[in-house]
Amino acid sequence: MTQSDHPWWRGATIYQVYPRSFADSNGDGIGDLPGITSKLDYIASLNVDAVWLSPFFTSPMKDFGYDVADYCGVDPIFGTLADFDALIAKAHDLGLKILIDQVYSHTSDLHAWFAESRSNRSNPKADWYVWADANPDGTPPNNWQSVFGGPAWTWDARRGQYYMHNFLSSQPQMNVHNPDVQEALLGVAKFWMDRGVDGFRVDAINFAMHDPELKDNPPAPPGNGVRTRPFDFQLKIHNQSHPDIPAFIGRIRKLMDQYPDRFTVAEVGGPDPDKEMKAFTAGDDHFNSAYGFNFLYAEKLTPALVREALEAWPDDENVGWPSWAFSNHDAPRWISRWAPAGAEKSYAAMVMMLFVSLRGNVIIWQGEELALTQVDIPFDKLQDPEAIANWPLTLSRDGTRTPMPWVAADKQCGFSKGEPWLPLGTDHRDLAVDRAEADPHSMLNLTRKLVAFRNANEAMLVGNLNIVEARSNLLIFERISENQHLICAFNMGDDSIAWQPTQPDRWRMVKSVNDARLGTLPAYAAQILEKIA
User: Which fold has domain 13-105+179-454?
Assistant: First the structure.
């Protein structure tokens, strides 16, 4: 596949924006759609292909937008549908695609669908959510546990039944087995595509369907991790990952194919997501791509980890197209997890070069281009419901969601005129956009150059990837397309490594960081070589 004949999303670089924390236009301390629109020129300057917007839909914000009360509305704290239309128009003028979240497994308990469903057992939407009778002793129907802690069932006196929720009790589980529910969700997708949206990131899709027989989950065998929630004590076999999910995905894809150049990427969590990711992206009649959690919670970045992740997605006819994220709105920032103290800048440069060299799509989380660190949020400032419920053992998601720093000298770093909904990182002022813009050697300017390099090289975008070496701190892989052959070499350690390809006179270095030279990779150095003969 050459650079000119692949769809725009194949090899795309996607920039994830968390609307609450990106830019606040009205001074209420919460980011909004007009704020994002005002910063689209900045995003375009990163040379990315698309912007993924986390939820901005009408919501009580118990889970900050992933509890949707109206799939086709914009919550007033973020603006209006007219504001969204203006954002789409400007993004398209700048050549940026817009992707938005779709949450198809659950809604808010304030959604009109749930209000009708819970009113009695005979209404038209009675079977739109997962309802079940109590056991004879009044206990919940089975042993399923919710992700955020406690049973996955809440009693509802209106119906005299329990309703299921995989997450918060205010996030009732939809019965996606029901064809009417599927039609309604497809209608939501059509609504947004008709407004010009270029694609979807589909949230928690492996939670979309359950075992209708409501069989108990078996206990999980002991592991090395600390169990902080009842959810951790079970193998999640029956409350999620039902084999009918790919058929529903096929219906979504059939609708998407009626619109040109649309793209879908699925989030697939869990301890062993590869099987589901493959099923959800198989052939040309499912999602275009999926990403798992290979890197998102990894405590250390190693050649072995990269090898394991990449080799799970070979360039085979029946294997889907991967997407990769190193951090996001749920996972702590990688620079705080991986970078050695005192070597953060050089380490970050190596990691960003590795990131843009991967086969698949790369999803840059807002602030990664500035090397923003994870923020330690004190308990009295926490907003994340899971972190509050399981304090202090569950890592707060708030620490990665803090406001973007735009202007170092401004009181709130240019994010807002008011008090931000989460505190700014104490070291983020020094990493603010205006300071990074002025520094030719900043992470921001390096990111721009690396993404531009990726875009300009066919092998980086669509080429095959072959691991040459992955041992100790040395990672070498090839990227090979019809018209180009590259070798990418990375030293992930603090000792210099002597390395050169066979027949070194047939290669030229086309990109490097941290003083990499032909034959030598100093600490945290990386280089990309192109075959010339």
Answer: TIM Barrel (3.20.20)
